[in-house]
Amino acid sequence: MSKRVRSREVCADCSAPEPRWASVNRGVLICDECCSIHRGLGRHSSQVRHLTHSSWPPSQLQMVQTLYGNGANSIWEHSLLDPSSSASGKRKANPQDRVHPNKTEFIKAKYQMLAYVHRMPCRDDDSVTAKDLSKQLHSSVRTGNLETCLRLLSLGGQANFFHPEKGNTPLHIAAKAGQILQAELLAVYGADPGALDSSGKTPIDYASERKTAVGKTMFATGA
């Protein structure tokens, strides 16, 4: 592990001190008890790794810690940050809560039902909304704003979206721009490093051309 967890860090789900696990695709750090619940959700909901005992692909741990440090948990708990949420009876779990049912019900609502995520205005055609989200993702990965991209992915943006006008995928853009952590995030959400753009090149081709760490990252993780 490139960095040791600092004592001020707390579990994203119940605020227990010194979390020892990470949910890679959610960008949060979690405690032992909450990790046991995450495992029960399945890898499609939460991909967990131990911060010190797991083998981490290059830059992936940095990606998770950057998301956590920049407040990615507020994506999953957006509505709970509203002062009126306490008046309505909504609250997050705390360390003293029982695993079953309290913590389990909260974590399922948070990550499976996305009960507290701020949703974009609905449209009649859901496929149009997904396309719009994916186009926003396509534009956002050229920047270093991981939280924006995580939010777009959480709402339905597609990591393998092929932009019809641009002729490429978000991973092509991240590779061209040398955005290592964006490439890691897209990889966690299933981006294909072998996808061809309109020029017949893959994201790995562009990463290799840059001769930067992003190339090694995608080769090592399979992006």
UniProtKB/TrEMBL annotation:
Keywords: ANK repeat, Metal-binding, Zinc, Zinc-finger. Residues 79-102 are annotated as: Disordered. SMART domains: ANK (SM00248), ArfGap (SM00105). InterPro entries: Ankyrin_rpt, Ankyrin_rpt-contain_sf, ARFGAP/RecO, ArfGAP_dom, ArfGAP_dom_sf, GIT-like. This is Glycerophosphoinositol permease. Pfam families: Ank_2, ArfGap. ANK repeats lie at residues 166-198. Residues 1-124 form the Arf-GAP domain. It comes from the Eukaryota. The gene is GIT2_3.
